[in-house]
Amino acid sequence: MKVFINIGLHPRYKETINYPPRGIKYDIKGISAASLYYSDRSRSAIKGTPNSLSYYPKSLHRFRIDKSYLIKTVGNNVIKITGLPRLSYYYTSADLIFSTRGIIPLNIKPWVVEIEHPYAFVGLNYKNWGWRQKFWIKHLLEQNRCKKVITITSGAREALENGIHSQIIKNKIETVFVTVHYEKIKKVKHTGITLLTATNWVYDRGFNIIKEIYPRLKKKYPDINWTIKTIFNLLPEDQKFVEKYDIKILRGVYSQEQMNALYAESDIFLYPTFVDPNPNVSLEAMRAGLPIVGTDMFGLKDKIIPHYNGLTIHDPGVFWDKNNFRTGEVNLIKYRNKRMSEELYKNLDYLISHKKERLNMGRNSEIMIKTGPFSMERRNRKLKRIFEEAVKR
């Protein structure tokens, strides 16, 4: 079966492209920079940007009075007035269209769409989410040509069901976890206990929550270490804190091999995020056999089974509300939460002092990627069934 796939810029799409379901051939289209994420064999399949008509409000970097500019200007104004979501049309001979960017195709071909949140239909801009947008999204998803709406987390499913009230759409929703392919990551012997946090954005991933209790942990367990992989600088006062407690800060863009080396020399993956609905790094850490400590929100509540492969901290809902929609602007750089810090301290204290349980949780994390609910085989089996059913209907 030939499936037209519209791809975006995110590491999880590399796994989607490089490990397709058996018997499925992808006709890969997407923005040209997407090729940076793919292997050589996948990159060779990319035929450039699609012949598409895509309208969504965005800033124009160059002022050009030409046909393209006029079309975009008119299209942007139509979008603002009517509340239409992102719409695209593709020329393809494939049997099915599979959108991974939250774009709703208008083709006559049957199509399925995969989303991490309903906001994907409005360019992930929560300020563009309103009754007009929901009206159009409901209408388009209820169309017969839309065969399935794939949510990649249970949180995304809950948000879609709470945001768009439609039994027709509810019957089309199926959760299919994104994942990483399994490979054995050999552990590196080291002294002490290493906590690892890997993220581009430090503060909205719980830096202040960890900072509040790290001195106490360090005092009780002098041989613990904390490594933070990031690309952003800390505030001056936090930089002094890092230096005082000899916390290792690694900056820059790392290859997968470099990330695997970090996981291999770590003992606990620490990710008390307020924001990230589906952290790819948590999947990589699970593959490397690390227990996960994180908040019980969105995709992490799917990935962390308390006392099986990790421990959770209750999310206070400062960024996402109970229906998994944005609460508004939150200054997470200054945010503190004593209850969360105390919960985190108890979790880390338990894992550090109970080596057997810590190692068992790490092995269970690895099993969840290798043969469990996050295995590539299970994902592909679901995708293949969805594709085949979509074409037959």
Topology summary:
Layout: E1 2-7, H1 11-18, E2 25-30, H2 40-43, H3 67-82, E3 87-88, E4 96-99, E5 104-105, E6 111-115, H4 131-141, E7 146-151, H5 154-163, H6 167-172, E8 173-175, E9 193-198, H7 207-220, E10 224-230, H8 236-244, E11 248-251, H9 256-264, E12 268-271, H10 280-287, E13 292-295, H11 300-303, E14 310-313, H12 338-353, H13 355-370, H14 376-392
Parallel strand pairs: 1-2, 1-4, 3-5, 4-6, 6-7, 7-8, 9-10, 9-12, 10-11, 12-13, 13-14
Helix pairs in contact: 7-12, 10-13
Protein model, in words:
The chain has 393 residues and is of the alpha/beta class. The protein contains 14 helices and 14 strands. It has 2 domains: 196 residues, 3-Layer(aba) Sandwich (Rossmann fold); 178 residues, 3-Layer(aba) Sandwich (Rossmann fold), CATH 3.40.50.2000.
List the keywords.
16% strand, 14 helices, six-stranded parallel sheet, 14 strands, 2 domains, Rossmann fold, alpha/beta, 393 residues
Short description:
This protein is α/β, with parallel strands linked by helices.
Helix fraction, binned, reads 25-40%
Broad structural category? alpha/beta
Number of helices: 14
- Indicate the mean pLDDT: 86
Number of strands: 14
Count structural domains: 2
Series of secondary-structure elements, N-terminal to C-terminal: EHEHHEEEEHEHHEEHEHEHEHEHEHHH
- The separation of the N and C termini measures 15 Å
Q: In one word, what is the shape? A: globular
CATH class type of the largest domain: Alpha Beta
Evaluate the radius of gyration: 22 Å
